[in-house]
Amino acid sequence: MVGKFNFGSVFWKLAIPIILLFTITIVALGFYIPQQIQNRAVEGATSASKQTAKQFKVLRKYYVQNILKKVKAGSNMKPSINHKNDPNAFPLPATMIHDLSELLKNEGTKVNLYSAYPFPNRKSRVLDSFQTEAWDYLVNNPESVYVAEVEKDGNFMVRVAVADTMVAEGCVNCHNSHPDTPRAGWKLGDVRGILEIDNDISEQVAASNATGTKIMFALIATLVVIVVAIYFVYKKVISRKLAVLNSSINDLATGSSDLTQRLDDDGRDEISALARGFNKFLEHHRVFIKEIVAAADQLRNSSADLSNVAVQAKENSSEQKNQISMVATAINEMAATIQEVASNTAAADESARQAREETSSGLQVVEDNVRITNALASEIEKAAQVIQELKADSQGIGTVLDVIRGISEQTNLLALNAAIEAARAGEHGRGFAVVADEVRTLASRTQESTIEIQEMIEKLQQGADSAVIVMDHGIETVGNSVKQASQTGESLGTITAVVNKISDINAQIASAIEEQSVVAEDINKNVVTVDNLAQRGDEASSNTALATEQLSRLSENLSGLVSKFKLD
């Protein structure tokens, strides 16, 4: 039987209360029904005994009124206790009761008449406890009935006692005037004796016990039938559905990921309702897992795109770093050139001073000055060429910054999209959201650094433009100096004037060179700053690439987990 040793099963939870209820009912009825039958038998015997007592009293009254009086009046016969052997005697009313009791003894009814004041012929009789208790009770309650149930000689007896009272003046006079009377002074209503009727109800008691036994066996049989019926109903209906439900739940608990399976939910019972709820649970999770699968696919694709962008950003950052290194080298070369120009300018100034002092060798000085001026013009042209290259390089840096700015904007946009997708993924996308936010922060910082570099490059270009203008002016001035130096061979005064002019021009060139040196130094510092920013951008690109790689692995793991579920 199902649940034979598992008393926690549903079957035993249904069967045990019924078994206990029937057991209690059987035990209760086993005591109640026989007792009730016995009580009815006692009540019946009591009622019959009371009726018998009334009948005896009616007979005695009839005997007194219609026989005893007439016999005494019409003959010499007299009432006597010992009337059996005396042809002139007839029984007293009480004697008649005793005689009738002896006759009815064999019929199952025993009648006793006794008193606490017996006549001499019965003085030796001793009253038992029931008779004594009945006398004491009925003397004080003559209208009542005293009943007791006793077991005697293996038989169950009902003893009923009623009071035998003085109901007529003739009875009172007879008992008061009788020579053998044990007591004088009787009056109407006194209890003269006790009329006891004993009924044997052993057969009724045995029948009640047998009936109780039959009822108990019938209830036991009914209990067995009910338990068997419950068992078959449980096995055919409840156990089968519970087994299917338990199997499905165990499959899910042990790793089965088939979310397309459904339980049989036909019917209106609680198990069918539970099956319908379980089916709704499976359907809800199937839809939820499908959404997770779609999100995982989208996350995988987005992580791949972000990885490509990160790789491209890293390459662009490396290229930017290389370009900035080249700019730094060019700036250093320009600074060296500026220093050389400054040195040459100082030499030219010294030559002009010597020209003023050595007017005696004016022609030679003029020739030297022409030569020096030509050299200066050549150096100025070189400086101008270097500045032009610096300007071109700064424009190239601006182009690189535009590329970096575009990459930063694209990275920021991709990070924003990744954050949106992470928010859709909920708890599973929290880590990806943190990475996306970090990428967006790095992109914003890259944009800010790019703007700073752009501003520095613009300053550098402005300084380069100024330097070009100064260099052009210097070249023009040097050219004029050469022309003037060529024409000053005639006059030392003219040479002196030209030398003074050259000295002034050299002073201007020295001032311009000094300013250019300061600008070059600022450019060099800015380029160093740009280089540091480029290195930070390269590190950020590396971190972004690492984060996207981790994100890709997470998306692959998520796809692997959700792919275990059977959804269609």
From TrEMBL:
The chain crosses the membrane at residues 12-33, 215-234. It is found in: Cell inner membrane. The keyword Protein biosynthesis does not apply. GO terms for molecular function: transmembrane signaling receptor activity. The keyword Transmembrane helix applies. InterPro entries: Chemotax_Me-accpt_rcpt, HAMP_dom, MCPsignal_dom, T_SNARE_dom, Tll0287-like_dom. Residues 295-531 form the Methyl-accepting transducer domain. Residues 236-290 form the HAMP domain. GO terms for cellular component: plasma membrane. This is Methyl-accepting chemotaxis sensor/transducer protein.
